[in-house]
Design goal:
It contains one helix and 13 strands; from the N terminus they run E-E-H-E-E-E-E-E-E-E-E-E-E-E. By secondary structure, the chain is mainly β.
Length: 164
Amino acid sequence: MPTHFHVSSAHLALAVYNDASPTGNALLLSNPSAYLASIKLHSSLDYPKIISVTTGTLSFPAVALNTRRNVTTTLYAHGRPGIPLIFGQMTVAGVTIAWAGSVPIQVDDTSSSPGGFHGFPRTVALGADGTNIIAHENGIGRNTGIPLVATSVDWAVYITDVLL
């Protein structure tokens, strides 16, 4: 289906939507909630707004062989009256990626074997509670192989106006 962009002074609306034919756009513009499956953007719908962006660097210590790390670090106090909806990004090995779920930032040993590559990752998850933005690190140093070396990642957290 083609994507359409339409601005209507009669409806005081702007819309981006998918539709087989642009002739039905008057109904879509005047009643967007009835056409949510087709709408990519509509000026009368309420969208989350980014209200603050905070950046920083998170450093991780080396993890010795046969050691586990399960650490929660407070990044900063968000100042919202509840748990905010947040989005994040981080830069790992020079690549900026979405900070969604538990993101692997290191693997302790990448020696190959007949089954492929093996190694224990160090992962970092982003979260929020009623007061703070937090990062949760989980990592394991195997009893053989290469220990996890100290590393750091640059991050950005986007706080929305939506409270969960």
